[in-house]
Every structure is written in structure tokens, then in C-alpha cells.
Design the sequence.
């Protein structure tokens, strides 16, 4: 997630659409892992439909011209792209900061050296659990040793390392262990991100949903660590919007800060947006990125406040949370223009409350019934 | 030990030609530098100490309160973890 810290003066722009800051490049939907919480769409893009190296290079050139300064090279697993080094070089050559977002599987010393030489600036490693067995159960694949090795390689290469942990029912009780793992692995930053229910995670919501006490305990744990870690490691807590009853400022607003390019070149305002009906998302193969960002129907659909209905329209928080997430509104109500039901002011909030407070078997799940993500035909 | 400020390895300093601003780009964050902040950061090369940075800026901006403001600014960036 990109956050822009800025003062009031300095950056003056004519009114109208502001340029984007960041680009999420989903280089491939292929992945050696099968995480049940994966936010990739349930309709994954096949490998044969992926953009070529030259097409990605062109995407980064156009993105830089448009104002993008930062990119997350993600997937799926970006390391599945054999031409990753070339893609990194193209992004860096265009002046765009690159962070690799990886499961760690497939990161070897030579590979990392080549990526670093090509201009890679930072690595974010996904972690499922601090316990190897639990980790592999969540990921649906052998992967813990590979992650440990990847972390060591990144540290040895003197690249900044961040860990990203998606939190849910089966690992929320391990916050202490996860922070200690981050310290042991030399991470500069850990993002503890409560599951966002999109794509595969939405399908697995029942198995992933934590209960309120679990969240409260984890939150306390994070607070305790914050004091102790000050200056040593940054600890980010991405709130569980279902449980908190607050809408999250999804992507910093629709078409406001960042764009997502899917493996086949389709461009979305948000990685979850592929699930929205009638979006008619444009593709870099047919249009220039500038037109896509400024002019396309897709990027203007929920830009600004015009589309808002009640209660968002008259709510003071609308400039902070932008009425929440459109994909979530659609997933829960069937209408993408409604207030995000995660918000306690939404007339649909009972939907979310019922999901959270539905009685469940006590205790952490030992072998949850995950629908592991699978690649298509 | 005298402090010779230098950007942390996760921070990239660059000029943004589209917005006409100096930026610090971090893995998850972009910081837009206001006013002359960019010209101060440009001197943080790990060789100059704070006194040298102040002296150089004072020469460039005679009469400006660099001796008071620059160390405070550098301290703030250090506290954020952007300078070390
Ligand atoms: S969440 Fe898991 S399955 Fe999905 S892309 Fe990341 S590592 Fe792969
Ligand atoms: S009503 Fe809309 S704008 Fe107000 S807090 Fe809820 S989601 Fe945000």
C-alpha cells in the first residue's frame, strides 16, 4: 500500500485528475503456493496470456511519464517470470522504485544478485505463520525453509526486507512469534494485515474469520511490541474492517493514488476490482496508460464523490475513507455503489456483524477446511 | 562521534519531473519534500557532517536561519528512520 506524506504547499497542480504515484504489477498469477487467503481473483489469468518483457517495459515507461514513482512487482509469484531481471531493469531505467513482493520460493543467490544489479530496491516476503508446519498448512505447500533462506539472502544482499503476514483465525494468536521471527530474520518492517475478503479469501471467509477476542488479544500484543521495537523495526497493523466496523480507505480512493496491471495487461484501479461487473477494464495492449488513468470509464466510475449515496454523501469522513471499498460493497450487497457494509453507519452493516458474530467452533482451527487456490486449466 | 547524515538504504531520493518536486521514495511510502528540503537532503552524503552541511547552506542562502533550522530538520528525518 502506498501512503503519500505531503505538506500543504509545494506540490501545486491544476485541478482535475492527479497523477498516480504507484503501480502494482501482477507479473504472473502463477504461484507455487496456494494460500487460502489469497486476494487474487478466483479467475486467474493463465500463463500463456501474460504480457511479454517488452510489453512490461513499455508499461513502466508510460507509467513513469504519467507520474508513477514506485512499483510493487507482485503476482502470484513474480519469480516465476524468467525475465524478471529484465522487467526490473526496465522499471528502474524508467526511474521507478521497485519492490519485489514474493513468497520467497525460487529466490536463489544468483537470481537475487542479478535482480539487485538490475536495480531492485527492496523485497517484501510473505509469511504465513512463525511455525513451519502451521505455515505450510496455510500455504498449502512446502515453503517455510525457502522463505527462511530467502530472508537470509535478502539480508546478505543488504536490501531492505519487509515481511507481510496476512492475519486470520489460524495465525492471529501467533503475533508474538511472528514479530520475533521478523527480528530473527532481520526484517526492517512487518506488516500484519488482517485478511481482506476478496478473491480466494472471500471464498474461504468462513474458515478465515477470526473472533473478536482473538483480534483484541492480537491488537494488545502489537501495542506491546510497538513500544519495545521503537526505532528497530516498523510494525504495521492493517485493521480488520469487518470487526472494527470502520470502512478502510481502499487504495487511497478509486483512481487516486495507484493502478494495478494484471498479468495479461488489463488495468484496474484495485487488485480486487476484477470481480466487479460492468467494469469493462481497459488493457495496455489497446490503450495508452495515460488515457486509461485519466479518461477511461473504469477509472472514473467511482472517482471523487459523485457516485456516493447516503450515508456517505453527507458524512464528514468521506474525504478520509472515500466511502470504503467498492469491491466489498458489491461482494456483500450486489451493488458496488452502496456504502461499504464494513462501516457501522452503513444500512447493510448487519450483514457484516452477522458474519463476525456467527457462532463457531471454539479454539483455533487445527485443520481448517480451506479451498486452496488452484490455477485454472 | 560526529553525525554524517546519509539516507537509509530503503530510501531513494529523487526529483519528480512530473510534479516538479523532490521526493523520498520508500518501499511503502512516498514523502514529498517541501521548499528547500531537497537541497538539504542532497548534501546528506555520509561524508559531510552536520556543521559542514549548515556551513554550505549558509553560504548559499546568506541571512537565512540555516543554523537553527537545518539541524532540527535533519533530526526529524533521522527520527523517522530516513536518515542515519
Ligand atoms: S497469497 Fe499465497 S497463493 Fe496468493 S499469490 Fe501470495 S503466495 Fe501465492
Ligand atoms: S458513512 Fe461512508 S464516509 Fe461515513 S464513515 Fe461510513 S463509509 Fe465512511
Sequence:
Amino acid at each position: 500500500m502506498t501512503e503519500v506524506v505531503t505538506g500543504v504547499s509545494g506540490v501545486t497542480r491544476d485541478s482535475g485528475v492527479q497523477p498516480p504515484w504507484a503501480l502494482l504489477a501482477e507479473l504472473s498469477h502463477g504461484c507455487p503456493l496456494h494460500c487460502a487467503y489469497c486476494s487474487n481473483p478466483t479467475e486467474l489469468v493463465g500463463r500463456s496470456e501474460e504480457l511479454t518483457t517488452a510489453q512490461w517495459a513499455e508499461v513502466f515507461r508510460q507509467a513513469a511519464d504519467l507520474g508513477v514513482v514506485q512499483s510493487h512487482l507482485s503476482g502470484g509469484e513474480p519469480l516465476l517470470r524468467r525475465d524478471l531481471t529484465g522487467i526490473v531493469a526496465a522499471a528502474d531505467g524508467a526511474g521507478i522504485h521497485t519492490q519485489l513482493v514474493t513468497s520467497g520460493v525460487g529466490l536463489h543467490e544468483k537470481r537475487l544478485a542479478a535482480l539487485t544489479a538490475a536495480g531492485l530496491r527492496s523485497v517484501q516476503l510473505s509469511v504465513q505463520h512463525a511455525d513451519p508446519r502451521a505455515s505450510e498448512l496455510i500455504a498449502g505447500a512446502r515453503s517455510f525453509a525457502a522463505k527462511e533462506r530467502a530472508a537470509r539472502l535478502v539480508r546478505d544482499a543488504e536490501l531492505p526486507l519487509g515481511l507481510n503476514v496476512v492475519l486470520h483465525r489460524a495465525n492471529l494468536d501467533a503475533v508474538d512469534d511472528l514479530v520475533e521471527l521478523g527480528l530473527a530474520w532481520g526484517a526492517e518492517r512487518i506488516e500484519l494485515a488482517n485478511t481482506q475478503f476478496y478473491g480466494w479469501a472471500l471464498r474461504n471467509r468462513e474458515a478465515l474469520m477470526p473472533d473478536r477476542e482473538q483480534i483484541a488479544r492480537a491488537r494488545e500484543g502489537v501495542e506491546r511490541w510497538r513500544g519495545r521495537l521503537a526505532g528497530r523495526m516498523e510494525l504495521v497493523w492493517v485493521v480488520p474492517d469487518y470487526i472494527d466496523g470502520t470502512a478502510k480507505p481502499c487504495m487511497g480512493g478509486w483512481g487516486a493514488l495507484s493502478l494495478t496491471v494484471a498479468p495479461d495487461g488489463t488495468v484496474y484501479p484495485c487488485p480486487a476490482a476484477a470481480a466487479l461487473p460492468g467494469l469493462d477494464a481497459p488493457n495496455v495492449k489497446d490503450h495508452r496508460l495515460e488515457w486509461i488513468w485519466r479518461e477511461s470509464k473504469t477509472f472514473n466510475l467511482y472517482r471523487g464523490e459523485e457516485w456516493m449515496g447516503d450515508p456517505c454523501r453527507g458524512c464528514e469522513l468521506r474525504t478520509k475513507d472515500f466511502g470504503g471499498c467498492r469491491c466489498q460493497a458489491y461482494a456483500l450487497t450486489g451493488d458496488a455503489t452502496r456504502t461499504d457494509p464494513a462501516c457501522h453507519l452503513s444500512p447493510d452493516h448487519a450483514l457484516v456483524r452477522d458474519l463476525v458474530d456467527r457462532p463457531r467452533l471454539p479454539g483455533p482451527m487445527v485443520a481448517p477446511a480451506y479451498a486452496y487456490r488452484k490455477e485454472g486449466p | 562521534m560526529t553525525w554524517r547524515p546519509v539516507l537509509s538504504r530503503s530510501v531513494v531520493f529523487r526529483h519528480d519531473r512530473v510534479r516538479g518536486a523532490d521526493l523520498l521514495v520508500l518501499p511503502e511510502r512516498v514523502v514529498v519534500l517541501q521548499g528547500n528540503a531537497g537541497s538539504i537532503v542532497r548534501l546528506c552524503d555520509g561524508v559531510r557532517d552536520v556543521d559542514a552541511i549548515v556551513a554550505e547552506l549558509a553560504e548559499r542562502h546568506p541571512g537565512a536561519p540555516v543554523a537553527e533550522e537545518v539541524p532540527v530538520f535533519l533530526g526529524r528525518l533521522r527520527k523517522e528512520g530516513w536518515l542515519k
The mean pLDDT of chain B is 91. Helices of chain B lie at 37-41, 50-60, 66-80. Residues A 247, 311-312, 315, 317-318, 321, 323-324, 339-340, 343, 345 surround iron/sulfur cluster (ligand 2) (CB under 6 Å). Residues 12-80 of chain B form one domain.
